[in-house]
Amino acid sequence: MVELFERIAQRIGDGGELVALTGAGISAESGIPTFRGDDGFWTRGSTNYRPEELATWRTFASDPELVWPWYLWRLARCRDAQPNPGHTALVDMDEALGNRFTLVTQNVDGLHSRAGSPEHRSYHIHGNLERMRCSAECNANTWPVPDALRVFAKGDAITPADEPLLRCPSCDAWARPHVLWFDECYDEKWFRYRSSMSAAMAADVLLVVGTSGSTNLPMQMASQALRSKALIVEINLRESAFSDYAVQSGGGLVTGPAGTLLPKLARRLASGSSA
Ligand code: OAD
Q1: Tens digit of pLDDT for each residue in 82-122?
Q2: pLDDT confidence of residue 182
Q3: Among residues 87, 112, 124, 126, which one is catalytic?
Q4: Is 126 annotated as catalytic?
Q5: Residue 211 CA, ligand 1 centroid: distance in Å
Q6: Cα separation of 266 and 263, whole Å?
Q7: Over the stretch 181-226, which tens digit does the pLDDT of each residue have?
Q8: At what angle do helices 216-227 and 193-202 cross, to 10 degrees?
Q9: By C-alpha distance, which of 211, 203, 207 is closest to 227?
Q10: Closest C-alpha to 249, from 229, 235, 220
Q11: How far apart, in whole angstroms, are the C-alpha atoms of residue 20 and residue 63?
Q12: What is the whole-number distance in angstroms between the Cα of residue 243 and the centre of ligand 1?
């Protein structure tokens, strides 16, 4: 048993709270590229645009028909993927710990939900590719990407037949992907900013899985968890921006694939504090 997993089990066994913070690395074993790896979405970009330009409100506001196809292609790719043992292990932890478990995910691929992580204990801090909302904010709802929309391949363009399905049913403005863009800010309403920070503050263990630490809220959560004296343990193939926080907390990095390590941790937690 990995020594750090033993320490997690001890903290959690005494009634402690576990917050799992996940990133693209947990879905890599399902075949979804990460963002910053060699084959990453952000590394390769689209044919003509760097993602930092494409994944912005500014670009969407000026040309929604440029932005939508890229998101619909990504959605098709995510729908083709299946949850892996890493996702399932987090469901097992949720079942073992109940309301002492919170999942905070940066992933918009929907694999945690499809694996069975309950929505009321899952914060999707970067949104969800399966949902859209009114770009004019005429209402405060999100709704599913319509089933009637065809499957997009890379490079497909929006056609007149697609367009009505990408409009707000209330006001007919363009719908937009329900994701956080580079020129937008975290908030509570759409992205559970305050809830995630509260979870980090209450955590006895912050488990950071498969994320490089390139975004703001996850790093704030790590900083908060450190101040609150949580144990921070990271599962990653390599060091990340979280690694120093983990060491400072008395935890550290467990090096290896999430799909192999998380099931081991889930089994350890299921066996209780004194196994
Ligand atoms: P990154 O691509 O930045 O980092 C992926 C991390 O996963 C790296 O640290 C890898 O070493 C690690 N990794 C890869 N395969 C793994 C495996 N099998 N097991 C464990 N770890 C593995 O992706 P994120 O950190 O998720 O935001 O990126 C954060 C955010 O940046 C994304 O949500 C996205 C992007 O801009 C938005 O779109 C708002």
Answers
A1: 999 999 999 999 999 999 999 999 999 999 999 999 999 99
A2: 94
A3: 126
A4: yes
A5: 4
A6: 5
A7: 999 999 999 999 999 999 999 999 999 999 999 999 999 999 999 9
A8: 30
A9: 203
A10: 229
A11: 36
A12: 14
32, 180, 213, 224, 262 from 229: Cα distances, Å = 34, 30, 20, 9, 23
3-state secondary structure string, 32-89? CCCCCCCCCHHHHCCCCCCHHHHCCHHHHHHCHHHHHHHHHHHHHHHHHCCCCHHHHH
Could you tell me the two tokens for 75? Answer: 């959605």
Written as six digits, the tokens of 208 are: 């950071």
Question: Tokens in use for 205?
Answer: 């263990």
Q: Compute the residue count for the chain.
A: 275
Q: Which domains does the chain have, with CATH numbers?
A: 2-61+65-272 (3.40.50.1220)
Query: Is 260's C-beta closer than 6 angstroms to any atom of ligand 1?
Result: no
CA–CA gap between residue 245 and residue 233 (Å, rounded): 9
| CA 210 – CA 256 distance, rounded (Å) | 10
Q: By C-alpha distance, which of 90, 251, 77 is closest to 154?
A: 77
Distance CA 209, CA 207 (A): 6
